[in-house]
Amino acid sequence: RLFDGVGSCFLELGKSKAAKIEGHFLAQPEPQIRFHEPAAVHAAAKRDWERTRLEEWFGDS
Fold first, then answer.
1. What phi, psi does 19 have (nearest 5°)?
2. In contact, 19 and 36? CB cutoff 8 Å
3. Is this prediction's pTM over 0.85?
């Protein structure tokens, strides 16, 4: 699959909060980045993302 420049990541700020950063990094004339303020909902989404990736890569244990 060809990378389209769209991506996101979480920035963990302790155990109870995380910020979410989303972007279209190949957008023209410049990258478009959106920063979502630190919140518990983003920390929960980060944990869920981690859990699903680990299950996908290593199986459900």
1. -100, 155
2. yes
3. no
Confidence band for 14, pLDDT divided at 50, 70 and 90: confident
Tokens of 41: 């909902």
| % residues pLDDT > 70 (the chain) | 98
Residue type, 34: R
> What ranges do the domains of the chain cover?
6-58
- With beta carbons less than 8 A apart as the criterion, state whether 33 and 55 touch: no
Eight-class DSSP state of 43 = H
3-state secondary structure of 46: helix
Task: Give kind and range of the element (H or E) at residue 59.
Answer: none
Count of other CB atoms within 10 angstroms of residue 12: 14
